[in-house]
Amino acid sequence: MARLLLRGFDIRKAYLDVAAQTQLIEALRPILKSAPLFRPTTPSGKEMSVRMTSAGAFGWVTDKAGYRYQAQHPKGMEWPAIPAPILEIWRNLASNEHDPDCCLINYYGEGARMGLHQDKDEADFSWPVLSVSLGDDALFRIGNTSRGGKTESIWLNSGDVVIMGGPARLTYHGVDRIRFGSSKLLPKGGRINLTLRVAN
DNA sequence: AAGTTACC
DNA sequence: TATT
C-alpha cells in the first residue's frame, strides 16, 4: 500500500477504481433515502457547512448538547446498516478481525469546508480511521497532535482511501476547499467522504 | 468544541 | 478519554 509522509506522520493511502467508486455510490443511494443528510449545529451554535448522516450501529452527531456517537438519526430512526462493499474496504485495508460500527457520510457541497479538528469521540483510539473520497477534489489539511504549528495540505481525489492510524490517529485535520464540479462521479457535483471507525 | 480563518 |  502507498504511504504518505505528512508532517512526519506515516499515513497509508490506497485507491479505488471508477467501477468501485460507482458501486459505492449505488450502495449509498438507499442509505441516503432512509437516513437523510442533515446539517448539524456545533455546541457553540454554529451550523456546519457540511451535511451528514451515518450508517452502522452508531452515527456521529453534534448539536448544542455536544459531540457524540448515538444509535439514532436526529429524526429518531436507527441508522441503516453499513453496506457490504463499504465493509469490504475496511476488511481489506484496516482490519479483518474487527468491523467498524460507524460509517459517517459527509457531503461537501459548493463552498463546504471543515475546520481543523481531531477525531476523538471514539472509545478506543487504537483503531484507525479510514476515509474514502468520492466525487469532487478536496484540499485536505493536516497539522499536529495539538493545535498550532505548521500544517501541510494535499489534494484528495475521487477514489482515494486514506487510513490514519498509529501516531497519525489523533492529528488535527480538515478540508479547506472543494473543487466543485471537478468530478463527474456525482451528477449534481460535490464530494462525499466516508469515514469508517470503531466508535464504541 | 468538527464554527471562522488559514500555515505568517 | 472531557459538564471542553
Topology:
Elements: E1 2-6, E2 9-15, H1 18-34, E3 51-55, E4 59-63, E5 66-70, H2 84-93, E6 102-108, E7 114-117, E8 129-135, E9 137-142, E10 152-156, E11 160-164, E12 173-179, E13 191-197
Antiparallel strand pairs: 1-2, 2-11, 3-6, 4-5, 6-13, 7-12, 8-11, 8-13, 9-10, 9-12
The structure holds 2 DNA strands.
Describe this structure in words.
With 200 residues, this protein is mostly beta strands. It has a single domain (2-197), classed as Alpha-ketoglutarate-dependent dioxygenase AlkB-like (Jelly Rolls, Sandwich). The chain is built from two helices and 13 strands. The longest helix is centred in the first third of the chain and has 17 residues, at 18-34. The structure holds two DNA strands.
Structure keywords:
200 residues; Jelly Rolls; seven-stranded antiparallel sheet; four-stranded antiparallel sheet; 38% strand; DNA-binding
Overall average residue pLDDT: 96
Rg from C-alpha positions? 16 Å
Count of alpha/pi helices? 2
Low-confidence stretches: none
The CATH homologous superfamily is termed: Alpha-ketoglutarate-dependent dioxygenase AlkB-like
| Biggest sheet strand line-up | 1-2-11-8-13-6-3
For this structure, the CATH topology is: Jelly Rolls
Number of separate structural domains: 1
Q: SSE string, helix = H, strand = E?
A: EEHEEEHEEEEEEEE
Structural class: mainly beta
Strand content: 35-45%
Question: Span between N and C termini?
Answer: 27 Å
CATH architectural grouping: Sandwich
Using the coordinates above, name the CATH class.
Mainly Beta
What is the share of helical residues?
10-25%
- Let me know the largest β-sheet: 7 strands, antiparallel
